[in-house]
Design goal:
This protein is of the alpha+beta class. It folds into 2 domains: 59 residues, no CATH class; 76 residues, no CATH class. The chain is 19% helix and 45% strand. It is built from 2 helices and 10 strands, in the order ββββαβαβββββ. It has a 6-stranded antiparallel β-sheet with strand order 5-6-7-8-9-10, with no helix packed on it. Strands 1, 2, 3 and 4 form a 4-stranded antiparallel β-sheet that branches.
Length: 181
């Protein structure tokens, strides 16, 4: 169904002679569609649908406005004083990047060897092939940074890396920890 033209104007008028509501749809001075005559119940149902659309559109716009940040995973906030003292803030941020590809196929093998029974002459096999290339960077608070690199097509296992980096404040006992396998 095509959307209505942008210059379409909908107006509703009450006809006291017939006790009905008349819906006019006009483009300029011309009727776009013939007038629709609505009973009071039909008018209320139409008005309710319009109000519901407006409400849901406003809620979606508010959510989109409030969640404007990097990535599609929202920032996580931990409300704990101990967590904040250990990691410097209450926020956990995760930013994944990459791609995943999965190929599924099936193969039927027919063998007309008379030594095989009829069930063994036809065989069906699945074939799965997957490729994942993923980079994830994140932070827990202001002090702990995490970065990973994973690729199923890597030549060597050491190319898939996970790195943890904790940097404390100068007045703390533990000031720097790095973990790189």
């Amino acid at each position: 169904m095509l959307p209505d033209p942008p210059n379409l104007v909908k107006t509703i008028e009450y006809d006291a002679a017939t006790s009905q509501y008349v819906l006019y749809e006009r483009v300029g001075n011309f009727n776009y569609r013939p007038p629709r005559y609505l009973t009071f119940a039909e008018y209320l149902a139409l008005k309710q649908r319009q109000d519901q659309k407006i409400y849901f559109r406003q809620q979606a716009d508010n959510y989109a406005y409030q969640s404007q940040q990097e990535g599609f995973i929202p920032q996580i906030k931990i409300r704990s004083r101990t967590f904040e003292q250990m990691f410097g803030s209450q926020n956990i941020t995760i930013r994944p990047q990459g791609s995943a590809e999965m190929i599924m196929s099936g193969q039927i093998n027919n063998n007309q060897n008379p030594l095989f029974n009829t069930k063994q002459r036809s065989q069906f096999n699945f074939n799965f092939d997957q490729r994942i290339q993923m980079n994830v960077t994140g932070s827990i608070g202001d002090k702990l940074k995490i970065s990973t690199n994973y690729n199923t097509d890597a030549q060597y296992q050491f190319e898939n890396q996970i790195k943890l980096d904790y940097t404390g404040n100068p007045d703390e006992i533990i000031q720097k920890i790095e973990v790189v396998p």
